[in-house]
Amino acid sequence: MHKIQLPTSGIPGIREIGYMGDSLGILKHPDRVFSNLHVFVYVEKGHIQVVEEDTSYQLSAGSYLFLKKNLHHWGDDYYEKGSKWYYIHFYDPQGAELPASHEYTSYLRTSLIAEETYHAEITLPKTGVVKQKSYVEAQLKKLLEEFETPHPLRPLFSSMHTFQFFLGLYAQQQDQESEQKSNRVIHRMIDLFHSHPIIKRTSEEIAEEIQMNYAYLSSLFKNHTGKSIMQYQNEILIEEAIQLFKDNNQNISEVSDLLGFSNPFYFSRVFKKVTGVSPSTYLQQIYRNV
C-alpha cells in the first residue's frame, strides 16, 4: 500500500481544490501519472472506482483515498450515475525530501514540546470512511470556497487549512488504532504514570500494576511512543519541576528534593536532557508567578 508521509515541520502546497459530479455515469477516473502531485479524493455521493498500480479501491459516499505521486492511477469502471466528489491536488512540503528522524507519536501527554517533534513525519491513512460525514463535507466546502477567493494569501491559507484537514483524518485513524489491545496497554501505562506524576515507578511496580512482563512492556512502550519508560517518566517529573519553578518560586535544590532526585546535580542533568537547557538557564528565561 503506497502511503503518503508528510513532515511535521511543513505544510503541503495546494495546486488545486475542486468539486465534480457525473450525473449520467459516463466518466471514469483519469488515466495518468503525476510526477510531483499527490491526490486526495473524497466521495460525497454515489460510488467511484480508482486503481493505483495494481490495487483497486471502491469508494462510496463518505469514503476517501490518497493517491501518491509518481504512481500510475486510473479507473476501470464508470462512476455510478449521480456521483459527486471533492479532490485536492497537492505538492510535498518544502524539505519533505529530507529524511525525518522518526514517525510522529500520538501518545505524547506532557506539555513539553521538544524540538525533535518537528523532525518527525506523519503517515496519512491510505483510505478510510469518515465518522462525521456532514462535518467533513462542510470542511471541504469551506476549503473549496477559500481556494476560489482572490485573496493574495489564498495559497498559504489553503495549504494551512488543508493540512489541518488532513491531520483530522490522521487523528481519526489514530483513534481507531487505539482500540487495538497493544494500544490499550500503552494508554494504561501512560495513565498510571500520570496518576501520581511526582512518583517514578520502578519496573517491578509497573509490571505488577499492568500484570504483564516488564521486558515486554518496555519493548512495547518504546515501539509505540519512540521513548523508553524511564525517558517518559523523566519528562513527567521535569514537567512538574517546571510548574514548581513557575508557581512556587522554589529553587533548584528544593525542587530536586521534592521530586525525589538523589541530588541536584542528577536533577540538573535530567532537566537539561529533557528541555535542552539547564535549570539555572531556564529560570533566567521564564516568567514566574508572584
TrEMBL record:
Keywords: DNA-binding, Transcription, Transcription regulation. SUPFAM superfamilies: Homeodomain-like (SSF46689), Regulatory protein AraC (SSF51215). Residues 187-285 form the HTH araC/xylS-type domain. Coiled coil: none annotated. PROSITE patterns: HTH_ARAC_FAMILY_2. The keyword Transcription regulation applies. It comes from the Bacteria. One of its GO terms (molecular function) is DNA-binding transcription factor activity. Transmembrane segments: none annotated. This is AraC-like DNA-binding protein. Pfam families: HTH_18.
